[in-house]
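User: For my dataset I need records formatted as: sequence, then structure tokens, nothing else. Please produce one.
Assistant:
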Amino acid sequence: SAGARAADAAASPYQRRTRLPTGDAFRNCFYFCQELMQLMESVYHDLDLERTWEHPDNRGWINVFRHWSWAPMFRIAWAASAPTYGARFVAFCEMRLDLPRINDAVRVDELTPGGGRDWRAQIEALAVAGIVNHVEQSLLLSAALGVSADAAALPRLFALRLEWQQVLARTSQPLDDSTLGIAVVDRGVLRVLRIQDHLRKLGLGAEFMRLLLARVAVDAVELRSGDYGIVGPVGPREAAALQAQITALWQQALKHRRAGN
């Protein structure tokens, strides 16, 4: 549009290089960056860059990959898409191209209801604000979690948040942080620890638990069976299996803390 062209003309060269696109241009750039990543992965396998990345004949590919990797739009697309690529290729890009590791850009925020709001009102407000998604909202209001409006003490709600400014490089345009998972602690008992489905098997569960224990004491893990809303029904056998997985993360984090102390 004429307004966009005028803004581009007024921007400094640095701003034009580091500013993120908006609207349809953002979506188009996002998909284009994913195509670049697929090309990178193909070249990585075809040239065996795991072993030959320093070979003089591969210098051109490595340099162009590094050029792409510093673009803010590319880094956003990478953070969102890395879970869909093979583990060795992702590790190569993190080590050789300085692309961001999600685990290095996360923190834990407490979202416990306050200001006179009850649990339901606060969860709905968090959903409207985009801090929790519809699946997390349904889980937090589910019958299995069973938080009553007249509870004497509400559980404590925590979110694993991604700091986009840690992901972006040399950008002049900040982005709002994103939620990657939630945890509920009820009087020292961990009732929920959930990483969003598309982010599983990245080590975020262990990182979430480690950061969570730095904020709140957890004395036990208890995952009840029942109806968890959109997540679906969880039977006793499945609840026991999930509880065993979360308990293992909890014990590992406790061991890590003791070793650190």
